[in-house]
Amino acid sequence: MPADAYEYCPFHPNGVMAKYCQESDLRKPGPGMLKKLLADWPVDLSRSLMIGDRPTDMEAAAAAGVRGHFFGGGNLLSVVRTLTSS
Fold this sequence. Notes:
Structural class: alpha+beta
CATH class: Alpha Beta
Oligomer: single chain
Number of helices: 3
Strand order of the largest sheet: 1-2
Number of domains: 1
Helix content: 25-40%
Order of helices and strands: HEHEH
Radius of gyration: 15 Å
Number of strands: 2
Shape: globular
CATH topology: Rossmann fold
CATH architecture: 3-Layer(aba) Sandwich
């Protein structure tokens, strides 16, 4: 198991470079990145959530079976504490 992870999607349907100009489940709102992380890490979905600032973040979370929370700004730490205190 990796010690840390960072995921990104290099693909975009309107990409400039031909090898990256394509649709991909890794690109939100697809759940590909989340599903990969869920497969690579021992995640307890009942105690997990995804915080995002775009509707596509919430769509990706729902498609991956992860509880999503929209973050519209403010103090992120306060939001995390509120969401995880219950």
